[in-house]
Specification:
This protein is 75% helix and 0% strand. It is mainly alpha-helical and 214 residues long. It folds into 2 domains: 52 residues, Arc Repressor Mutant, subunit A, CATH 1.10.10.60; 156 residues, Tetracycline Repressor, domain 2 (Orthogonal Bundle).
């Protein structure tokens, strides 16, 4: 990387960090181009150069935070141990269950440990600024989702997990935990992430487990 490229990357990172900090501290009302450039010390012209617009910066921040979340889920899956040598084999229901539970707890752990990023993801999921930047967001999201779906697909094909389209399986796994995270981040009463981590993984797995033959 040339010195000019390095400076450009440092500027991008400074803008993204300032944007996330401001959103965390000030909320949506304080999340403005003026505030981000003042906090980061980066000019408006430089922001436009790197992101095209303030909406482009917000979309890039969303893509970054979402990628970090999905990477955490992939890491949780990667940590699921294979069956022991001489055991029933890798493609067992026990390992499928462990993978689903790992995704659920990984999502909740990320929410707890990276609250600012999780809040921005959940608050921005239906924001207007995402519409014009679906391509760049998909470039970050799609390969990671493909990896998660690829981990699970052999268990679907083996009849251990319900045979649904990938998108519906995603809804069954991520939908309940994402709503739990959203409410916790919003300070809704009665939502405890520790309790959710104890109770949700098994119940979500049960919703995905294929019925026994016959």
């Amino acid at each position: 990387m040339s010195p000019r490229q390095r400076r450009g990357e440092e500027t991008r990172e400074r803008l993204l960090a300032a944007a996330l900090d401001l959103y965390t501290e000030k909320g949506v009302d304080g999340f403005t181009m003026t505030a981000v450039t003042a906090t980061s010390g980066v000019s408006v012209g430089s922001l436009y150069h790197h992101f095209g617009s303030f909406d482009g910066l917000a979309a890039a921040l969303y893509a970054r935070c979402l990628a970090d979340l999905l990477d955490a889920l992939i890491a949780a899956l990667d940590a699921v141990p294979p069956e022991r040598a001489g055991g029933p084999g890798e493609g067992t229901e026990a390992r499928a269950a462990a993978g689903i539970r790992a995704v659920v707890t990984g999502y909740l752990d990320f929410t707890r440990e990276h609250r600012a990023a999780a809040r921005f993801v959940h608050a921005s999921a239906y924001a207007d600024f995402l519409t014009a930047h679906t391509g760049s967001i998909a470039a970050e999201k799609a390969p990671r989702l493909t990896g998660i779906q690829g981990w699970l697909r052999p268990y679907v094909e083996a009849g251990l997990v319900v045979g649904l389209p990938d998108e519906l399986i995603e809804m069954l796994v991520i939908g309940p935990v994402a709503e739990t995270a959203r409410r916790w981040l919003a300070g809704a009463p009665g939502i405890d992430l520790d309790e959710a981590s104890r109770l949700l993984p098994e119940r979500i797995w049960r919703s995905l487990r294929a019925p026994a033959p016959g």
